[in-house]
Amino acid sequence: MSDRIEQQLAFLREAEMLKSVTRATPIHDASRPENSAEHSWSLALYALTLADQAEPGVDITRVIKMLLLHDLVEIDVGDVPIHSQEGSAHGSAEIAAQEAAAAERIFGLLPEDQRAEFHALWAEFEAAETPSARFAKSLDRAQPVLLNHQSGGGSWIDYDVHWDQLQSRVGDKIALGAPGLWPVIRARISAWFEARGLI
User: Fold this and answer.
1) Rounded to a whole number, what is the distance in angstroms from the first to the last CA of the chain?
2) Counting runs of H as helices and runs of E as strands, what totals does the chain give?
3) Least C-beta-crowded within 10 Å: which of 1, 30, 81, 197?
4) Based on the structure, what is the number of domains in the chain?
């Protein structure tokens, strides 16, 4: 039992490193960038709060687990902003390979049963083929949009994001897993883009 606890503590010690991974999106008041651990916590709260927006077949407990685990690979790979040159082709083979290696290393710190469970949850999120994973991905796209809007533009300004980019890279993904959520977000943020001639 002591070996098991030592493995679990080693994983938790490594997971603390996520607090040092800086994201492109600022926090609500634009005073500093969000870190990836804050992002994961925020998404878990989104899932709990917006559970009624999930399609039939979504397991919210599973969604929360995915969201707490999905960005741990950034400890090794870093955050790849979706509107950056690298992020606009987010599914690139190089990034996917780096993230897969990071998942093997980080989840490999755990006892075998937890390693298998956590790795499977991460892989399910990445594949986005189950209703729970699609909902989790939708929230992962929605949260930065709402933070950018709340902070006055955030990474949209930094990456010169136009409406068509936002729609294809983010809006379509939100609508896929949370169809009722995207129209509300779109109505909320479209004036920001219109005022800047970006729509």
Assistant:
1) 59
2) 11, 2
3) 1
4) 1
Output phi, psi for 35, to 5 deg: -100, 165
Domain that holds residue 184: 2-195
Rounded to whole angstroms, the Cα distance separating 148 from 144 reads: 6
Structural tokens at position 80: 């790849």
What single-letter amino acid sits at 91?
G
Q: What is the pLDDT of residues 97-131, one digit of tens each?
A: 999 999 999 999 999 999 999 999 999 999 999 99
Taking the CA of residue 199 as centre, how many other CA atoms within 13 Å lie in the half-sphere pointing to its CB? 14
The Cα–Cα gap between 132 and 51 comes to 11
DSSP state of 161: -
Give residue for tokens 């996520």: 18
CA 110 distance to own-chain centroid: 22
- The C-alpha atoms of residue 15 and residue 103 are separated, in whole angstroms, by 12
Q: What is the pLDDT of residues 66-96, one digit of tens each?
A: 999 999 999 999 999 888 766 555 558 899 9
Strands (E) across 21-105 are located at 22-26, 33-35
pTM of this prediction?
A: 0.93
C-beta neighbour count of 105 within 10 angstroms: 13
| CA dist., res. 122 & res. 111, Å (int) | 16
pLDDT digits (tens, 9 = 90+) for 141-160: 999 999 999 999 999 999 99
